[in-house]
Design goal:
Elements lengths: L1 H22 L5 E4 L2 E4 L2 H11 L1 H21 L24 H12 L2 H13 L4 H36 L6 H10 L1 H25 L1
Antiparallel strand pairs: 1-2
Length: 207
């Protein structure tokens, strides 16, 4: 039991270090228009599958806090949607709902992949592990993208329309474009990385 705790602590520290490294380099947040594509979710997805949903959710929450800090320090047109300390362009005040956008989807990144992987692994058995891992990685990434973009629409539709300089009626079309555009690319990258890295880690942990 002690050996398992040490192993889990070591792996958690490793994933946290990778997240911090991604956060302080351009690799973690890649600007695409008003929204940043991210690779920060990949360590959270892998931790969820390898270490379980509790640690995954904890790392996801840290991802959310990093997102808030980054949006507060490195201001972009959409920072108001991720940081309550940045003024909404329509109200000129910060909005506490930015905390929901920044944190809740990121916590779920650390929960969803675990249960998707366990469910698929049970149904498809050992031989289809790569498929289970890929779909779990895909699901974790799309959880982030779908929830973040829909929460922005739900809380900040008019402000988002103002930033994009489009009418409010066309905002959801733009959001769908992001989900099935850069969001899908993020998900495929996450699925490939999850399959490759988790396969090695799970094999080593079994030994």
């Amino acid at each position: 039991m002690k050996e398992k705790n040490v192993r889990n602590f070591t792996l958690t520290a490793m994933f946290l270090a990778i997240m911090i490294l991604l956060a302080v380099t351009p690799l973690g947040f890649i600007p695409i228009g008003p929204i940043n594509a991210t690779t920060m979710h990949i360590p959270v997805i892998i931790a969820s599958i390898v270490l379980g949903p509790r640690i995954g959710a904890g790392l996801g929450a840290i991802f959310g806090v990093i997102s808030i800090a980054r949006s507060t320090v490195l201001i972009t047109p959409m920072s108001f949607a991720f940081s309550p300390f940045i003024a909404n362009p329509l109200t000129n005040q910060g909005d506490w709902r930015a905390l929901i956008v920044a944190i809740i989807p990121r916590i779920l990144i650390g929960v969803v992949p675990y249960f998707v992987y366990k469910g698929l692994h049970y149904l498809l058995k050992q031989k289809a592990r790569p498929v289970s891992l890929f779909i779990a990685g895909l699901a974790g990434s799309m959880t982030n993208t779908i929830l973040v973009m829909n929460l922005i629409f739900f809380f900040f539709k008019d402000s988002y329309a103002s930033v994009l300089q489009v009418t409010a009626n066309t905002v959801y079309g733009v959001i769908l474009g992001i989900i099935f555009g850069s969001g899908l690319v993020e998900a495929i990258v996450a699925g490939i990385a999850t399959t490759a890295i988790c396969a090695v880690l799970l094999r080593l942990m079994k030994k």
